[in-house]
Amino acid sequence: MASPEVAAAGRQSHNAGMKTWQVLSLAGLCTLVGAVAGANAAATKAGEATVVLHRCTDAKGKVTWQDDACPAGSEDVVREMIRPQDPPKRARSKPAPAPVLVAPEPEPAPPPRVLPPPAIYQCTSYDGKERFSESYDPNPRCEPIVVYYPYPNYVNPTQGLSCRWVEDSCVRLSDRAACEHFRSKKVEAASLLQRAFSDTQAYRRSELARLTQIVAESCR
Question: Which of 44, 91, 112, 138 is least enclosed, having the fewest CB within 10 Å?
Fold first, then answer.
């Protein structure tokens, strides 16, 4: 009864050895495949970094370079050269910012020019009457001579018909006095425009505008 048990045990030991050998064989195969793949990758990488050229010299001594093997009858010299590489792309520099143009400050406006007022003359007659004129106008005239006699009854007819040339005394007012005159005339012109008839409204309106301009430009 003991013999069959020994035989069975022997068969189990043989199967176990076979399984161990199979595991070791698979491991070795994987290692070999990995090494081959690494070598191929290295070769591919090296091939990308270098290039193989054939220097061909024909019977006449003409030299040519080509990628393939030289034709028959030509001397073939194989040269392995480093494959030329494009230079790295330069980073684009950012354009300089456009200069900010600052508008120059406007020059201050010159002060308004103050014009002197038009001339005003104050004219006085021989009997003390005063009038104002914007031009020198002494108003020369021939007045009856009897006016200048204290006793007109003692004047004979010949003297009564005669006359005497006279004129007013005119003096120019200062600018300050002239401005006071124009201000008064402006008030008077505004009043006359309100009471003007249709046939004089245009003149009264233009006169008020003229006096207003004079006061604004010369009498501030």
Answer: 91
Residue 6 lies in a domain: yes
State whether 151 and 184 are in the same domain.
Answer: yes
Boundaries of domain holding 153:
121-218
pTM to 2 decimals? Answer: 0.46
Q: Residue 153 falls within a domain, yes or no? A: yes
d(CA 170, CA 9): 164
Average pLDDT, integer, range 60-80? 82
Q: In this structure, are 190 and 154 located in the same domain? A: yes
Give me the chain's average pLDDT, please: 78
CB < 8 Å & 24+ apart, contacts of 133-140: 133/170, 136/170, 136/172, 137/170, 138/167, 138/168, 138/169, 138/170, 139/167, 139/168, 140/165, 140/166, 140/167
pLDDT tens track for 107-124: 888 777 778 999 999 999
- The C-alpha atoms of residue 193 and residue 210 are separated, in whole angstroms, by 13
Whether 2 and 59 map to the same domain: the answer is no
